[in-house]
From TrEMBL:
Belongs to the 'GDSL' lipolytic enzyme family. This is GDSL esterase/lipase At1g74460-like. The gene is LOC101501677. It comes from Cicer arietinum. InterPro entries: GDSL (IPR001087), GDSL_Est/Lipase (IPR051058), SGNH_hydro_sf (IPR036514), SGNH_plant_lipase-like (IPR035669). One of its GO terms (biological process) is lipid catabolic process. The chain crosses the membrane at residues 6-22.
Length: 363
């Protein structure tokens, strides 16, 4: 009998199960742009990238603007919900406490932000990925002083990390003559520079404790309404789409290589480029009626910067692929999320058990 108890304790120690009854919940830390922002820009009062007016948020909760650049849920919302993980609050939410962080994680995503510091500068205020990682380091300090160094390390190593940026580095940087990157680089050298920067950032996150991390690739961003309006034919911008494909290819290699090199890490890359492209060329097959114009739009004066209170809404929001000039609708996000869930092979996290401390490498 005694021996059994000893054995159980040894097994428990080996598998890192806390015997003192203390165990941290598995939460998410989200790094991203407007596709994942859940309210940070709302508190960046000088930022021009805002979703703080109707009709943003119309299909979520009380229907009032909540900071999401969408009528409903983000892709990260839907994936997290599917995995049984809590939705992390915005970093700048004034009510965010250490207890909230331990319960729900944090979302640092910021509309207009990019992998590169210089991206989106004309929005005046936004968190670039380096800035978001800096804020995450501040969060780590806070949690260490709350629960101690060792428990904090376990907490951060057990968490899930989402990194979803890149479209602004093209749309609001490289493809705009306003930015020096557009004349400093060509397509190939820019992607090398961009993906090289991402690689350093992902290594930095690993050094800070990130072990289970997923990177979302880009969709056919040449087909967002804003890009289509720029062509005389109203078709997708082929060059922009090619850049997205090249970015996905290069960053997928970097992420998979890092997953093999970095100790105890499960780093994965996934994109929904093909599915979204299929929806755009054949909307009715997927239950959509419109795949080229925004549901919320300011009539003939397109492209209006954002969806505004004076805009008119489409009749059925679930039938539009795009919510505004830049962003997919809730329904399209659901389709993207389902594709990523399939590609990543996610399963529901059972929060009643201790989270696995060491992810299976390269699973
Ligand atoms: C990017 O910005 C961060 C601050 O957020 C700074 O620490 C870093 O040096 C910058 N990197 C480059 C390459 O400018
Ligand atoms: C990897 O996991 C093992 C066993 O859990 C641990 O001893 C080691 O310190 C970990 N390495 C890193 C770099 O986290």
């Amino acid at each position: 009998m005694k021996l059994d108890v000893v054995l159980i304790i040894i097994v428990a120690i080996i598998f890192g199960i806390g015997l003192d009854g203390y165990h941290c919940k598995m939460v998410q830390f989200i790094f991203g742009d407007s596709l994942s922002d859940v309210g940070n820009n709302k508190y960046l009062s000088k930022s021009l990238a805002q979703a703080s007016l109707p009709w943003y948020g119309i299909d979520l909760g009380n229907g009032l603007p909540n900071g999401r650049f969408c009528n409903g849920r983000t892709v990260a919302d839907i994936i997290g919900d599917n995995m049984g993980l809590p939705r992390p609050p915005a970093f700048l939410d004034p009510s965010l406490s250490e207890d909230d962080i331990l319960e729900n994680g944090v979302n640092y995503a910021s509309g207009g932000g990019g992998i590169l510091n210089e991206t989106g500068s004309y929005f005046i205020q936004r968190f670039s990925l380096y800035k978001q990682i800096e804020l995450f380091q501040g969060t780590q300090e806070l949690i260490r002083s709350k629960i101690g160094k060792e428990e904090a390390e376990k907490f951060f190593q057990g968490a899930r990390y989402v990194v979803a940026l890149g479209s602004n580095d093209f749309i609001n940087n490289y493809l705009m003559p306003l930015y020096s990157d557009s004349w400093t680089f060509n397509d190939e050298t820019f992607i090398d520079y961009l993906v090289g920067t991402l690689q350093e950032q992902l290594k930095l996150l690993h050094s800070l404790g990130a072990r289970q991390l997923m990177v979302f690739g880009l969709g056919p961003m040449g087909c967002i309404p804003l890009q289509r309006v720029l062509t005389t034919s109203g078709n997708c911008q082929e060059r922009t789409n090619k850049l997205a494909i090249s970015f996905n290819k290069a960053s997928s290699k970097v992420v998979n290589d890092l997953g093999k090199q970095l100790p105890n890490s499960s780093y994965r890359f996934g994109d929904a480029y093909d599915v979204v492209n299929n929806v755009i060329s054949n909307p009715s097959e997927f239950g959509f009626e419109n795949a080229d114009s925004p549901c919320c739009s300011f009539g003939k004066i397109r492209p209006a910067l954002t969806c505004i209170p004076a805009s008119t809404l489409c009749k059925d929001r679930s039938k539009y692929v795009f919510w505004d000039e830049y962003h997919p609708s809730d329904k399209a996000n659901e389709l993207i999320a389902n594709e990523l869930i399939k590609k990543f092979g996610f399963k529901r996290v059972d929060q009643t058990e201790a989270p696995s401390p060491s992810p299976t490498p390269d699973a």
